[in-house]
Amino acid sequence: MLEEELKLEREGRLNQQQKKKCHICDNEISDEGSSSGCKFCNDLRRRNQEQHRPIQTPFHSSHPLKLCTDKFQTFICNSCHKLHENIDMYFTCEQCDFFMDVKCMVMPQPTWYDEFESVGGKFIQHSTHQHRMPLIKDGAINDDVSCFVCRLKCSGEVCYGCKRCEYFLHESCAQLPPQIYGSSFHNEHPLFFHTSNRAFRSCKSCNKENLIFTYECRQCDCILCGDCASTIPHGVKFDYHEHPLYLHQSTDDDNLMKCDGYDSYCKRPTLNNSEEINGTKSYIFWCAKCDFKVHMLCGLLPKIINYEYHVHSLVLFDLALENEFGEYGCDICEGKRDPRFCAYVCEECKFIAHVHCLTSQIMKVLKGDLKNLELHNVGEMKLSNEVNNVWVVEKEQGRSVFTLMDLLNQISEVESEKLMAYFHFDVVNKGSDHDKTTQHQLQHNNNDEVLQFSNFIESHQFISVLFDEFHFNFQKTKLEIKYTDLSLRVVPFKGYSIPLNLGSVLKNLLEKYGDIGESSTFSPAMKSIGIFFTCKVLKQMQLTLVADINKDHLRHWYFYIIFAKEIMGFEVEFLEVSLKKITQVFFYRQVSKLLDMDIKSLRQSKMDELENEKDKCKVKFDKLREFQESSSSNQFIKKRLNEGLKLMWKTVGEVGFKSHN
């Protein structure tokens, strides 16, 4: 009988010597076996063909299992949870989509000498494995052993383990419930513990891969790992997003730089590969509803942090400059600090620290009680109460999201033609990294730019020439409306529709300079678009340090200011005056660099570049000469050239369709 054969095989494997293995059951292959399997598997296959009898097993007591030998299958065993590819012999329950490999089916129950020594005699019979597992003390297993639920190392933590099957679970992972309600990343529906037996899964939150055990929603396409599913802290409010955001650590290298923050640190070419970004980019605030992501450094940070090795609390500053000499450091790591980034400061002691040097303290705060915690939107002006109240009312009334793209669709055809004469949509690149520039490229371009300043003596002469150049290019260059701008949420404020992230800029603009668009004859929608561009430039000016200004910045700002003045009819003379002051400062900074330049080294560097270009040109012309010499003696090429000369005064139609007549 088939069941009796399985029982005898279990008993026979207790003291088995390890030799050549059967690919089906992992048993020793004797001389009576074959290349396709051991003697037992071959006999089992033959018996199954003679009589198809269901098999009972305590591990799957709800239905008997069927031995399949007639088709190949790729599956993950429900007992050992190992992947088997293209196996043609296995046990299955078609009603439950349950699989069990032959090795697990015939494996005997572990004996006392076959198990790990348990801690306090504690054992568990877990639903994911057929054998009971002892609680193992730390240090009893190898360092490379991983938990089958979370896929993280077991070393250093208490876990349950089956030595015979090499199956391990962290004690905390073994205690995960069959259902979870109110998960941070999916609180609309309950999540159910799921065992994958056909393919590995990936977490939709942290992108952790090769998962067998996940939590899944039966009403929508949501798959979460145990860590993300069991995370139930309070979400944090981000001024520029309508849903709460939840902090988690991403392990997916491909998505670490994905950030939906507007004008955030990671979007600036001079900063995107810095130590500060690389040290914190794995910590992300995430909205599970719409996949909105923002780096912790680019988004929200605690206003106050306590550091165990400093007596006073540290306060977050967007800009921390301890001196005027351009030398800035961190008092924790004692390394250099880029002043463009925010930092934690003790003003009393002049103690300043990198954000990434306080990551563990920040994470401790953010994972705690956030109810009364003050969080700071890094690099952003606080959203004004007036603008915020408008947004709150819209949300309470359930109004649909109105974006900049919707605003563009409201302008007339004449206005659209006017706008498109000066702008184009960046819909091809869709916010990609096409505009990112490396530090090396920036330095190379900067050196060339600085050398040009030796042609000028006074700043007014430089400004006049530069603005004439800009104005000439303005007539020929189309400005860019970025793909990311089109999806910005727009709210009504003081007669304009403005993206939420620019609401505070518009409020300050109106309070200081009045309604700059009052005399414009365009429609409210078109004027709102013009106000958007103007506020965007103002915000960029507020965020850009004088040390980072280059000619591209000045050209970009000049274009938008001239568009606002000459095309929209806005009263922006104050912006023109500001731009001239900024350009004057830029001129003298470049002159200062010119005076400090190591001319000898720079000259040698330029000469080396030219010599390299010269060598490349020589190689190209040598190849051209070789081609000419070889072609002049090639009779086939001569023949084709002569044919080409004869056909030169024929029409293309005569030549192309001649063979089809």
Automatic annotation (TrEMBL):
Keyword tags: Repeat
PANTHER family: CYSTEINE_HISTIDINE-RICH C1 DOMAIN FAMILY PROTEIN, PHORBOL-ESTER/DAG-TYPE DOMAIN-CONTAINING PROTEIN
Domain DC1, chain residue ranges per copy: 58-105, 128-174, 309-357
Annotated organism of origin: Cannabis sativa
Lineage: Eukaryota, Viridiplantae, Streptophyta, Embryophyta, Tracheophyta
Keyword set includes Repeat: yes
Top-rank taxon: Eukaryota
A Pfam family reported for this protein in Swiss-Prot or TrEMBL: C1_2
Protein name stated in the entry: DC1 domain-containing protein
Keyword Secreted: no
